[in-house]
Write a structure and sequence with these properties.
Domain Choice-of-anchor I: 79-348
Mean pLDDT: 93
Shape: elongated
Number of domains: 3
Low-confidence stretches: 1-40
Strand content: 35-45%
CATH architecture of the largest domain: 5 Propeller
Structural class: mainly beta
CATH topology of the largest domain: Tachylectin-2, Chain A
Largest sheet: 6 strands, mixed
Domain Phytase-like: 503-766
InterPro entries: Choice_anch_I, Mesenchyme-surface_protein, Phytase-like_dom, Quino_amine_DH_bsu, WD40/YVTN_repeat-like_dom_sf
CATH superfamily of the largest domain: Glycosyl hydrolase domain, family 43
Signal peptide: 1-26
Helix content: under 10%
Keywords: Signal
Number of strands: 55
Length: 784
């Protein structure tokens, strides 16, 4: 698909010709600005990263289900109403999950007794409990009740307010309400159930400019505090204790703007100690819960991180760095009773794109993630280039659980849509174990250790793009392995060059490697520049991107919307390049080192009849004088009947084009359309990938069809009536995509039969633009 072409620039150190400039394209390709870079072509070979991806079933999480929150909407509510899941809790039996939905101003209930088939149990609107402007910020289950933390501020930052509603779960009635005296954020329950701690943030107004400061700066009184709710007796007897912070103590600890502290997140250990992050102040506090005494207050410090992408320019350029930025931690979790782990999301002044571990007694930093979190996103194709200048993967959520007797940290990436799993048996040396994809904006991370379950709730709901907020359920260990999705994530990763992962994503093409039966080629489209052909080693699990070839012209790297790649028996490649408009579509013949040798424009009348969806796939048959190039156009020409796309045959020997028709399947879904994504020659026939524009539970048409190679000549002009070639269903890919038990990806875009005889399919993750970012690489076994 056509995308905005970003400004690219030179990337040194990661790969030899990595983030080059965008060159002006002529003769049928999109044009853009060109910068001066090295003139040599380069092929870079990577080595596998020192990560053990293949954790045995008893020692790993298995994805069980992805439940779209809109399916739990009230009767009669339009399907496109924005509704999300943020923070969640679970009943003591582990069967009912309760989540906050601040967007729709309600809480929701899910039956997860069968975690592979969660069921919606309806919602409870805050308009039934208070005012229409009230918003839930957090929930925690205690015995037969759910404590719903409610922000009642209503936009008046100078007079913050909030409450806790105590709701009986059985009948969803409020039995008590407790005034909190300020605007709340998070809540945590002590392990013994004697009290709950609530962070009263009294957050700043980002549009307000304090005297002598800049817009959004602190101080903006009133200051925040912590409210302890004692849970003795019946709910009507519960009382609160307010814990304030000493300004002088905060100033001595080196906190930012100590006169206006903003508690963000709380957690309680077995000793009843409350850990609190003061995010905007870059601080951490420890409170003795039973007495309410602040026993420790210290700064989270600063960090400098190298070898990360810090420029939003459409290029995965890992030569950037940040220097001495405050960590500004969000979520916090106790590792035992001594250590504290923080997700360093950042806010107004900082954010270090990683997570850290502190000694709670001394405030000393004992471990910091550095660039590991960012590199994890790049390795797995989840790098969000649109957030490169902000806070990168933005670690926000964090929780500590125990698996098989070992403490484990679960750290969520808000912008790259994953949760990373670390063994923290040694808090000074965490060990990465697994990466778990989620839908957009994972906010809540709920471990349910009694059932070996994990629920990840997401706060981004985009009905227009069809990517909806969801709860993703995982099960840990052998007991959940049989119900887990396949293939496991990640199914495709990149290797390292000089210790840095090769950047990739938005893969819309696959090709057989004629020189090696256990290899394929793929290519990035213009979601990431510059244009590159990537080599995939199929003998690795997950499959490994271990080769990178920059596409160049006169030694200059280009940004191209590559939608198809075909390796030639005679060496080099054909690339199908989609243009912003029809005449800008082109077929490029490039050498083995990526240098463009020939531009082959579409016939003028064909280009003129194309819309914004043009060339989508290319495949090569034969070699030498007998070489034939097959292409597909994604949609109908203006001159063709509705629902008939074109297959093109180009013969390099004489430069001639011939065209045939392909009947697209119909769709009756508003806003949907059907198009072609890929073509490959196999066993004397053409395999053509056809898909709709739908994803998630709405996805229907993701299929490969077989078309016999025509023996008769095709038409040569746009105005000539094409012969529609008969098609037969070769493989319905929808069940394969659903089998991952994740969000069904819209863009199944690459297909190839490797020399080993197996059929492979890859999805285009759109560079995380209106997509979850997950890439699914399918090995579908022997081609039939």
């Amino acid at each position: 698909m056509t995308r905005r072409t970003g400004r690219a620039r030179r990337r040194a150190g990661t790969v030899a010709v990595a983030a080059g400039a965008v060159a002006a394209l002529a003769a049928g390709c999109a044009s853009s600005e060109q910068e001066s870079v090295a003139s040599s072509n380069d092929i870079t070979t990577a080595t596998a990263a020192p990560i053990e991806w293949n954790v045995e079933n008893p020692q790993r999480y298995h994805r069980l289900a992805t439940y779209p929150i809109f399916e739990n909407r009230p009767e009669g509510e339009p399907i496109d109403t924005e509704t999300v899941a943020e923070i969640s809790s679970v009943t003591p039996d582990g069967n009912t999950m309760i989540y906050t939905d601040a967007t729709a101003q309600r809480i929701g209930f899910l039956d997860i007794s069968d975690p592979s088939t969660p069921r919606g149990l309806g919602t409870l609107s805050l308009t039934e409990l208070g005012n229409a402007d009230d918003q839930p910020t957090s929930v925690i289950v205690h015995q037969d009740f759910v404590l719903v933390v409610v922000d009642t501020t209503g936009g008046d930052f100078t007079a913050p307010s909030g409450r806790v509603d105590v709701v009986r779960i059985a009948d969803r009635t409020r039995v008590h309400s407790i005034d909190l005296g300020g605007q709340p954020d998070s809540i945590a329950l002590s392990p013994d159930g004697t009290f709950a701690a609530v962070a009263i943030e009294n957050q700043r107004d980002e549009d307000f400019t304090p005297e002598g400061g800049e817009e959004g700066d602190l101080p903006q009184p009133p200051t925040g505090f912590v409210q302890i709710v004692d849970l003795t007796g019946e709910p009507q007897a519960w009382t609160t204790r307010r814990v304030d912070f000493d300004v002088d103590q905060a100033r001595a600890a080196g906190l930012d703007t100590p006169e206006d502290l903003e508690p963000e997140y709380v957690d309680v250990n077995d000793r009843g100690e409350i850990a609190v992050t003061l995010q905007e102040n870059n601080g951490i506090a420890v409170i003795d819960g039973p007495t309410g005494e602040v026993t420790s207050l210290f700064s989270a410090g600063t960090a400098s991180v190298e070898d990360i992408d810090t420029v939003e320019d459409g290029v995965i350029d890992q030569t950037g760095s940040i220097t001495d930025l405050p960590r500004e931690p969000d979520a916090i979790g106790w590792i035992g009773d001594r250590y504290l782990a923080t997700a360093n999301e950042g806010d107004w002044k900082g954010g270090t794109r990683n997570w850290s571990i502190f000694d709670a007694a001394t405030g000393d930093l004992v471990w910091d993630g550095g660039n590991e979190f960012s590199h994890l996103a790049v390795r797995t194709g989840l790098h969000n280039e649109g957030r490169a200048e902000a806070k990168g993967p933005e670690p926000e959520g964090l929780t500590i659980t125990e698996l098989d007797g070992r403490p484990v940290a679960l750290v969520g990436s808000e912008r790259s849509n994953f949760v990373a799993v670390y063994d923290v048996s040694d808090p000074t040396d965490p060990q990465f174990r697994q990466i778990l994809p989620a839908t957009n904006g994972p906010e809540g991370i709920l471990a349910i250790p009694e059932r070996n379950l994990l629920a990840i709730s997401s706060e981004v709901d985009d009905a227009e793009a069809g990517v909806r907020a969801s709860v993703t359920l995982y099960g840990w260990g052998e007991e959940h392995a049989a119900a887990g999705g396949s293939p496991a994530f990640p199914s495709l990763v990149s290797g390292d060059v000089d210790g840095l992962p090769v950047g990739w994503g938005a893969l819309g093409a696959l090709s057989v490697d004629p020189e090696d039966p256990d290899r394929l080629f793929t290519a990035t489209d213009d979601a990431y520049g510059p244009a590159r052909v990537l080599g995939i080693d199929l003998t690795q699990t997950p499959a490994l991107i271990d080769r990178e070839i920059a596409v160049t012209e006169d030694g200059q790297p280009l940004t191209l919307d590559i939608e198809g790649v075909a390796a030639r028996r005679d060496g080099g490649f054909y690339l199908a390049v989609e243009g912003a408009e029809g005449p800008e579509n082109a077929l490029l013949r490039v050498a083995e080192d990526g240098a463009i040798e020939e531009r082959i424009g579409l016939p003028d009348d064909i280009g003129a009849a194309l819309g914004s969806q043009g060339l989508e796939g290319v495949s090569v048959q034969g070699s030498g004088d007998d070489e034939t190039v097959w292409v597909v156009l994604q949609r109908e020409l203006d001159t063709d009947p509705p629902g008939v796309a074109r297959i093109g045959r180009y013969t390099p020997a004489d430069g001639g084009w011939q065209w045939y028709g392909y009947q697209l399947d119909p769709t009756d879904v508003d806003g949907d359309w059907i198009g072609l994504s890929e073509i490959t020659v196999h066993d004397g026939a053409l395999l053509i990938l056809e898909r709709d524009k739908l994803n998630g539970p709405a996805a229907r048409i993701k299929a490969i069809h077989r078309v016999e190679i025509p023996t008769e000549s095709g038409v040569t002009g746009a105005d000539e009536e094409v012969t529609v070639l008969p098609k037969t269903l070769y493989r319905d890919l929808a069940p394969d995509l659903r089998a991952t038990r994740g969000w069904v990806q819209e863009k199944a875009e690459g297909v190839a039969v490797a020399g080993n005889g197996n059929l492979y399919v890859v999805t285009d993750n759109d560079g995380l633009d209106d997509a979850t970012g997950e890439t699914v690489f399918l090995d579908l076994g022997p081609a039939q």
